[in-house]
Each structure stands twice: as structure tokens, then as C-alpha cells.
Amino acid sequence: MMWFLWKVWENLNEPNKRNIKISLSLDRECLLDDRQVYISSALFILPLNLPNILESSLLRKKRMKVYGFIASPPSRAVEITCKFAKVEYEFKSLNLMKGEHMDKEFLAVNPRHCIPTIVDDDLNLWESRAILQYIVNQYAADSTLYPAEAKARAKVDFWLNWDMGSMYAAIVGAVYPKMGFAPIPDDIEGKEAKLAEQVRFLDGSIPAGNFITGKNITIADISIACGLTMPCLINPTFLDDFENVKAWFGRVAALPEFAEVHKQFQHFAAEMMAAKAEEEKNKPQVKTAF
């Protein structure tokens, strides 16, 4: 026990070592801080805030690693959920357009080389919606982000699955080809109509003035809102025809946890579009002979 206490002491920085007081059950006192640490043969209680004054405490687990890319909606959903759940994480950016997700280091983490991927202690996990569920279950189990009550959770699960199979699939089909991520299909108009159909369904499902499943934001709101940033990127007026969705998106985007990450995405997108415009400007003009 004294060895453990000494290792804690070793991990304190010098300012925190000054004026710290430890009270031992043997009625002895020595200097540590104004916080009290009680030790007995059967009980050892550390104050809950002690890890906050440690620089590299033995009590603190390693930070979660999040492998992602700011342009990726699922990656942003994971970052935003971490912020809502107050999870300390290290973001490792992998630029998909440069093929960084195929690096050997990342393949050792995720042989499927997809993002987002997290590493949390001995857990390697990909598939964004599974990651969102894990983050809340592990770090914010009492929050309303992913409610514990069965019926409330079922509603969130429904929207997460609908997002993956319907909404985000429609976004990938209708928007990503226009962004150069895939060839433009012959039936692009049909893809656009399919996306509009999904947004229309969402528009008729959101309770007025609330989030998708009620008065509290959930991981379903986060995931779906991140996906909708993509059609809004290529068409800023995309949501104008969907009054409820537009108002809901505004409520989500106004939350500081979402806004912080969304601002980074907007900055990246502006740089990317400016670079693309410059590339088009400098492209040699093909002259047609008549």
C-alpha cells in the first residue's frame, strides 16, 4: 500500500507536491496537498479528483485512439460523440484521398482498412454506429445519448439502422459521384430522387422543436446530421424544401460539441474546393478544330 502511494507521489509535478497533506490512519501527517488520502489496513480511499492533478497517473488509462478523416461523416460522428461523452481521445488523421488508410501501421489495427476505427485498450473496433454505441455504453452509460430503457433505446437503434441502410446509402449514391469519389452513374436522377425520398421521410418523422426521438439529442441525431452535411456541401440550399429537417439540423449544429467538429470540416471543405477550382482553372484548354 505504501509502495502504491509512493508511485502516486512520484507522478505528481513539483507544484502539486507542495502543500499536499496526507492523513494516515496512524494519526501521522506528511506533506502532499490540501486533499485528504486515508489509508487503513482494510480500506484505501483516494479522492475522486486526484487524477486531475497527476501528469501521468497510474490510475489513468490510455487515451482512446480514433483513426478517421475530417471529410468522412462517420468519422466526425465518432469525434462528436466522444465530445458529448467527455472522452479523452487522440485523433489520428488518415487522408483517404492520399491512400493513408492502406499504410502498414493502420492495416495492423484494422485489416479492412476502413474508417472510423478506434483502439481503446485491447479493443479494436470499426463500423461507426457500433463505435457510437460502445462509446456511450462505456463512458456515458447514464446519459440520454443512448438511453438504457429498452423502448427508448429501440427507437435510437431503429434510426441508426435506417441511417446506415437508407439515408447514408442514398447520400453515397447521389452525392459522392458528384464529389469525384465515384463515377457518375447513368441513373443519377434516380439516385437524387431516392435521397429526396429519404429526407422527406425524416422530415415527416421529427417532432416539432425536438430531436429525432424526442427532447434529447442521441447518437442517431449525430450520425444522421453528419451524413446530411455532404449534400449540403455541394448544394447549400438542399434542405430548404424540408422545413422540419432544416430546423432540426440547425438545433444539432448549434450544440458546441457538434459545432466544434463541423467547423473543422467546413474549413477543410473550403480548402478542398478552392484547390479543385484552381486545378480546373489551370487545366489546359482543349481546342476543337472545325
Describe this entry's structure for a reader:
The chain has helices at 2-10, 14-17, 73-84, 104-109, 128-139, 150-174, 188-203, 219-234, 243-254, 256-282, and strands at 20-23, 29-32, 38-39, 44-45, 64-68, 89-93, 117-120, 123-126. The protein is built from ten helices and eight strands. Strands 6-5-7-8 form a four-stranded mixed β-sheet, covered by helices on one side. It has a two-stranded antiparallel ribbon with strand order 1-2. It has a two-stranded antiparallel ribbon with strand order 3-4. The chain folds into three domains: 2-53, no CATH class; 64-139, Glutaredoxin, CATH 3.40.30; 150-275, Up-down Bundle (Glutathione S-transferase Yfyf (Class Pi), Chain A, domain 2). The model is unreliable at 1-46 and 53-60 (pLDDT under 50). The protein starts with a helix and ends in an 8-residue tail after the last helix. The longest helix is centred in the C-terminal third of the chain and has 27 residues, at 256-282. It is globular, with a radius of gyration of 25 Å. The protein has 290 residues and is α+β, with helices and mostly antiparallel strands. One of its GO terms (molecular function) is glutathione transferase activity. Belongs to the GST superfamily. InterPro entries: Glutathione-S-Trfase_C-like (IPR010987), Glutathione-S-Trfase_C_sf (IPR036282), Glutathione_S-Trfase (IPR040079), Glutathione_S-Trfase_N (IPR004045), GST_C (IPR004046), Thioredoxin-like_sf (IPR036249). Residues 149-285 form the GST C-terminal domain. Residues 62-143 form the GST N-terminal domain.
